[in-house]
Every structure is written in C-alpha cells, then in structure tokens.
Amino acid sequence: MDMHLLSSLARELWVVWLLIIFAAIIFHAYRKRNKEHFADCAQIPFREDAEETTHHG
C-alpha cells in the first residue's frame, strides 16, 4: 500500500468520524429530555448573584 493512498484514506475516515461525533453531540443537545437540565445549567452564573441579594437585602 502506498503512503499517499494510506494518508488519503485516513484523512477521509477522520472526516466521516468527526461528522458522526458532531451529529451525536447535536442530537444529544436538542433532545427534549435534556431541555430541563440545560435550562437549569444556563442559570448557574446568576445563582450566586441571587443568593447575595437575598442575604444582604
């Protein structure tokens, strides 16, 4: 097997592999089951501010 052929084949397989991984991540992120979890995580930066205002207020 020629090195150029082998490197070309490896390059093509990496593209396919990365596209499969990307599609799996997108599928996971947009599942309805995960919506509540991601909404909760989106509020993390604001929790500390809300706790400080309730303690000082």
From TrEMBL:
Bilayer-spanning residue ranges: 12-30
Sorted alphabetically, the keyword list is:
Membrane, Transmembrane, Transmembrane helix
Q: Which Pfam family would be a valid example here?
A: FixQ
Q: Which InterPro entries match?
A: Cbb3-typ_cyt_oxidase_comp (IPR008621)
At the top level, the lineage of the source is Bacteria
Query: Does the entry feature the keyword Transmembrane helix, yes or no?
Result: yes
For this entry, the protein name equals Cbb3-type cytochrome c oxidase subunit 3
